[in-house]
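FORM 7B: Structural annotation worksheet

SECTION A. Query
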Amino acid sequence: MVKTEEEKEVLVLVEPEDFLKRLFSLTQSFVNAPSASQPDLNQVLPLADLEGSSTKTYSLAVIGLDAYRCNQEHGRQQALSPGKQSPSSQPGPELCMTQEEILEVLVVLQLWGNIEVLFLDTWQEFGQHVSALTKAIAKRPYKRQLQSKELPFCTAGDGTGLWQVWKRQIQQFNRVSPATAAAIAEAYPSPSLLLQAYEECSTEDEKRLLLSDIPVKLDVSSKDRRVGPDLSRRIYLFTVSTDPDLVLDLST
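SECTION B. Predicted structure
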């Protein structure tokens, strides 16, 4: 059985002319709107009214915006040359928007609608972006599965998740077996309890050797052994030292 799930990412391709008209329409809505009111983003993204749109993340792709504005400006200059003036030579108000005004609207789209606008120069760049986006979405379930397997004990439902994390932290020390880490974690189930035990010690030597006599449970056929003074000293120094250059392992 294949489980299907609709993705939350929506990529909308917008023509440069239509994009500028929508931005200009949004700027006009700012004029009469109260200062604290939410802007009407439907003027830029009509899809916002569709069912389920509130759970979507929209991105707008605009291809050739700079080239479009340059061509329109060049055509307007030619139309205004002597002997070629005509009423139709007047540009639309959206073409008169400055770069600062466009950037201001882009900020509004990002902050209020979480809408990202992607400016591309060619259709080839658009195809490359669609390909990369498709690959990222396709790999997402696999990455989620890997992440869930990295630290499965963090979400343990039996209440042992934090204890498992503490045991794994102890195993980060050199030459520490899972059995040794488990023995220390059973004696002191959390770092705070270990710190409390250090505070109750009266001498520095007592603190260094606090963990040394903890028995380590091995196989039935093997003899029991203890944590030992070396590991006890390393854990103590790591726990209380503030020196970032301190060498814990004397054998290195």
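SECTION C. Observations
The mean pLDDT is 79. The first helix runs from residue 16 to 32.

SECTION D. Sign-off
Analyst initials: ____
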